[in-house]
Amino acid sequence: METLRQEFDFQTLRTNGIKINYLYVCERKLWLFDRGIQMESKSDKVLMGKLLSEYSYPAEEKRELLIDNLINIDIVGDDQIREVKYSNRLAHADRIQLLYYLYYLKQIGIEKKGIINYPKMRKREEITLTPEAEREVEEALVRVREIVSMEKPPELKKKPYCTKCAYFEFCWS
Question: Residue ranges of the chain with pLDDT lower than 70?
Answer without folding.
Answer: 1-7, 40-62
